[in-house]
Amino acid sequence: MKKYLVAPSILTADFLNLKKELDLLQAAGIKYIHYDVMDYHFVPNLSFGPKVLSDITNNYDFKIDIHLMVTLDKYTLSDYLTPFLQKNVSQITFHYEALVAEQIQEFIKLCKTNDLKCSLAISPDTKVSELTPYLADLDNVLVMTVYPGYGGQTYLPEAGKKIAELQKLKATNNYHYLVEVDGGINDATYKIVQEHGVDMIVAGSYLVGQDLMTLKERVAKLEN
């Protein structure tokens, strides 16, 4: 039976009680944390930076799955990413829509140099075919099942076709990436993404903010 990776998104956490939220996730046996970085430019929201990340990685052993919803603007790719290359950062995702082709190749190379899993995200309006030149070099593809920028949105059902398409391309071409989803996960939609072949599930309010017993039950659903 397939086991799914689960990564709670702390974007929906109570920031004044973030330690309490992280302690609960740790007690529930969570291995991954999905860390959303927003710049109020690529998306209409502002979230965490390297400082909060270091506070988490210095006090917890979660593997960190960084999701960058940003534009580089005045920064080089290396300059922007360097502060995020911290202990326990396992995977970094950049949005395909935020980079030009040369930057994507640089991003792939930088991840390999730093022994990080390299991931590209696609927003709902982006076709899987646009990732074709890069799939062989990716460790992960993040399919946004909502529009990026804020939590609490409704799952977009057309995302299922993208998951299935990516898994078909992977099998046909012997690629090694995982397929991850982010957005709108609840008691109904987690089954849908599992049926379409997802490997890793990001969930915000479905997991974060729950009591320990409820949290363990929900994690078990997503994992199995």
Tell me what you see in this structure.
- This protein is α/β, with parallel strands linked by helices.
- It has a single domain, classed as Aldolase class I (TIM Barrel), CATH 3.20.20.
- The chain has helices at residues 18-27, 50-57, 77-81, 101-113, 159-173, 189-196, 212-223; strands at 5-8, 32-38, 63-69, 89-95, 117-122, 140-144, 178-182, 200-203.
- It has an 8-stranded parallel beta sheet.
- It is globular.
Name the descriptors.
single chain, 224 residues, alpha/beta, TIM Barrel, eight-stranded parallel beta sheet, 7 helices, 8 strands, 32% helix, globular, Ribul_P_3_epim-like, RibuloseP-bd_barrel, manganese
Count of domain modules: 1
Distance from first to last alpha carbon: 8 Å
Mean pLDDT: 95
Computed structural class: alpha/beta
Number of helical elements: 7
| Named CATH topology | TIM Barrel
Under CATH, the homologous superfamily reads Aldolase class I
Shape: globular
CATH class: Alpha Beta
- State the helical fraction: 25-40%
Question: Rg to the nearest angstrom?
Answer: 16 Å
Q: What proportion of the residues form beta strands (DSSP E)?
A: 15-25%
Contiguous runs where pLDDT drops below 50 for at least 5 residues: none
